[in-house]
Amino acid sequence: MRHERPRHEPIAARSWLFVPGDSESKMVKAVKSEADIVLLDLEDAVAPEGKAVARTTVAEFLHRNPEHRERLWVRINPFDGPHTLYDLASVMPARPGGIMLPKVYGPADVQRLDHSLSALEVANGIEEGSTRVIVLITETAEAMARTQDYKGAPRVVALTWGAEDLADAIGASTNTNADGSYAFTFELARSLTLLGAASAGVTPIDTISADFRDLDALQQRAQATRKAGFRGMLAIHPAQVPIINAAFSPTEAEVAEAQVIVDLFAANPGVGAIGWKGGMLDRPHLARAQRLLRQAGLG
């Protein structure tokens, strides 16, 4: 009789730091950072001729750092190339905390990953279904039409998006406007990712800020995307991590206000709306306050 596989909750992780899988020194530095998740990258950060060596480097690094394994995830290569199964066969015996799947064409790629992971988990004495997954869901034109289809996708705890590969996929020469903001198609990708994550009941993670030197711009963007509903952000440099962590952490003032709202409704059971600060609070305000307290670890 087949045992029941573990059920995964949406992941609470603010900063997801990419680090090249072929650089031992950069991986060491990344682990010492405050990043909630360190993404050991076997895809874009590694040249094709270096991928075999990078797999071994990542697997050995995982083996040497078991105390950090929960936050050490691996971005594998996509299924539309020759490297994916080699990546998985190399890193899964070292039990990474999770897998990032890039350049999907739709949920079928997640199902394919699930089957591969299940076989490798069983072969390596890992609980079947325990390896979590984050999916990059906007890097191909086909995937843009499937962003709402990840509800119930096995293992998936978060969805994120990418602008660079999408630009290549659609033949765009740039993904930004003259003022540096994302062009319409790429803002659409961001919005569809947020809506897709909400539909699937998983964590929405915003994409990278490519200019890692402009920390002021990063702070403004991170704060804006958190207000929009994202719960974390990808990073490409350790200097970005503290900015992201701070932006996606509720402030003391926000926590205090949320607690007041929750307490008001608790003191008035059965009431649909309550007057407060010259306006009205209703049930959506309560739900948002409760969610914020949970994010702060108080709910």
UniProtKB/TrEMBL annotation:
MF term (GO), any: magnesium ion binding
HpcH/HpaI aldolase/citrate lyase domain mapped to chain residues: 14-238
SUPFAM superfamilies listed in its UniProt record: Phosphoenolpyruvate/pyruvate domain
GO biological process, one term: oxaloacetate metabolic process
Residues involved in substrate binding: R75, E139
UniProt keyword list: Lyase, Magnesium, Metal-binding
Protein residues bound to Mg(2+): E139, D165
Cofactor: Mg(2+)
Pfam family, one: HpcH_HpaI
Enzyme class per UniProt: lyase
EC number(s) recorded for this UniProt protein: 4.1.3.34
Xref: PANTHER family: HPCH_HPAI ALDOLASE_CITRATE LYASE DOMAIN-CONTAINING PROTEIN (PTHR32308:SF0), LYASE BETA SUBUNIT, PUTATIVE (AFU_ORTHOLOGUE AFUA_4G13030)-RELATED (PTHR32308)
Family: Belongs to the HpcH/HpaI aldolase family.
Record's protein name: Citrate lyase subunit beta/citryl-CoA lyase
